[in-house]
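Protocol step 4 of 5: obtain the predicted structure for the target chain.
Materials: sequence only (see below). No template structures provided, no constraints applied. The aim of this step is simply to have a reference model before the mutagenesis design in step 5. Sequence pasted as it appears in the construct record:
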Amino acid sequence: MSSDETTRCTWIVLGGIHLLNGTAPRRADEPIVLVRVAAQEVCVPSTTVVIRWDTLGECDVIGLTAEGGRLGADRIEGSGLFPDAIAGPALRALVGPSAAPGLVPLCYLAEHPGGYHVYAQIRFYPQDACFVRTTPEPVGEGPVQALRWLTPALAAHTASSMQLNNHLRYFRTHFAGTELEYKYNLDPAPDVWAVSLELLKALRTGELDGCRPEYREEFQIHYTENYLFDVTGPESERGYASFIPTVTAGHVLKRKWFEQDAFDRREQLYSGIELSPDGFEAYLCSELGLQVTAMPPFRRVRYDVQCESMRSGHVYGIFFDHCSLLAAPEVVLSQCELEYRRSRSLLNHDENEVLWEMERIDRWLLGYLSARGLTKQRTFYSKRSFLRDAVAARPELASDH
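Step 4 output (structure tokens):
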């Protein structure tokens, strides 16, 4: 970290929830509280900032009115700011009993040349809070207590209120309808549970520069059966169609269109397919007009580590798979996959940055896996290729569907 970074000032700004949701007008005498904290960004400037209250330590806190009058000051332990996501005793004493019930983190404020970058609060819990940058350039140059940044900060929030004030609306998706994915064959097949948790630990401790596990979505588990059909025609429809059971009686149909295994493939999911396995092939041929070959069904055990770039806001999945044929469980494909998922960002619209960042993460991930003897190279080897190869090696498997 440079000397400029060690001296840069950052704050968590507190105020009434009505300043975010517009349920009441802004008043000149209402409290604005500045909580001085150590810089919380993983990289500068970042898109996402996550704050854990219990890691802040003792903080200098200044209470002001919205017009700049001084209400008082205190030193408050970070864990005591918002127990139960409600203003704690010290904050209540500072802002008064009428303002305290609606007091929330408004934003994270980071000093930069020319003013301050503002990060709007989008998630707020007793344990932590998440903030997303709303200012493309620093605003409100001058002493922080002059509050020149307050009006542009609130204006930026209002301008994006439909995204910021609705749960998870702040996500956008680039390359809609296209899967972007690197793969790494794991041989011999490892315990994917243990491997995935070790990688999650590596992300938590910052081994991948600028990235951390996705905020409150860092790990998921999946256990499914797949009934995959090789789509051989018409030419424009080649790829595969896979039926995946849901928790109800129906299935999801996953379609992927590609001639050869590749980094980017068109993908679409269709839900509500009410069929039993013996009707899958007829549905694809008669309803969708496809020419297909049934492949051996397999079970997929998958553990997902979600990796968020704090710099860009892009989220990438790092998935660990164990796929085994239902009729021959000893026939296994074990892979790690790196896939673009979504973007937690109001400002970043550059799709090419996703591609550049995936290349960077791919280099790190390949090195990480290679160092542990899990793989030697990156590939695009698909489930379709795995099943084709399995049938070629053991033709009797072609009838087990």
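Step 4 remarks: The domain at 178-399 is CATH 2.40.320.10 (Hypothetical Protein Pfu-838710-001). DSSP finds nine helices and 20 strands in the chain.
Proceed to step 5.
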